[in-house]
Amino acid sequence: IxxxxxxxxxxxxxxxxxxxxxxxxxxxxxxEYTLAFFCITSLIILLVEDSKKYISMGIIFxxxxxxxxxxxxxxxxxxxxxxxxxFIHRKKTHLLIYTLCLSTAICLFYLVxxxxxxxxxxxxxxxxxxxxxVDTLSDxxxxxxxAIKIISNYPxxxxxxxxxxxxxxxxxxxxxxxxxxxxxxxxxxxxFKIAGLIIHNSFLGAGAKYGFLGMFTYFMxxxxxxxxxxxxxRKFKNNNSIILLSICICWCFFQTSQ
Length: 258
Hints:
Helix content is about 65%, strand content about 10%. The protein is mostly helical. The strands form two sheets. A two-stranded antiparallel ribbon has the order 1-2. The protein starts with 16 loop residues before the first strand and ends with a helix.
């Protein structure tokens, strides 16, 4: 509903465009990343527990797709591949997974072929320009290089994305946007200010804000959670331990793009 009918339906944050006039789905969460994480987590639990709720799985799969978050969709496909390796004997569930993936591929093929899109025409569409083109990825790499530069020059970081030094550094690479200013006393927006875009990588973002020590501490926390979950899996090798390990790995994946 948020994506195709009413963009503000049960939405508790500002709608974010995915491409053209199509909005990302965020559910009741603040952003699409959180919705995708809970969707993938739910799907992992249903798959590992060998649930027969195939309609629910299909809805969750579709909900992840319409977040239009590239890393979430990639994480979902990787989760399917890992599941197939762990539970190679579950033929019916594999059939559902393949059906979902094939249906998505057919929809994309219909979009490209039956709408008379040549390669040139497809690369001129907004979905390509806004979500698939090299330029949309090069912006991220510019952010990463800027973050590494900040960490090397300021070992204790800038302290916040709101700091003037961060805004100036973001301006140098053209990573500025207008941010709404909110008056919490009167509970209303009072205008806009120029702000730097956040770094879409939690590890580098922690380094830019809190320095190398902050980045290293956060990285070790993520790594230790995965290692702990892996030790639990090696010890018990049951469904619950697989779910725990999968969730920890997915959570760490998400940190590379938030």
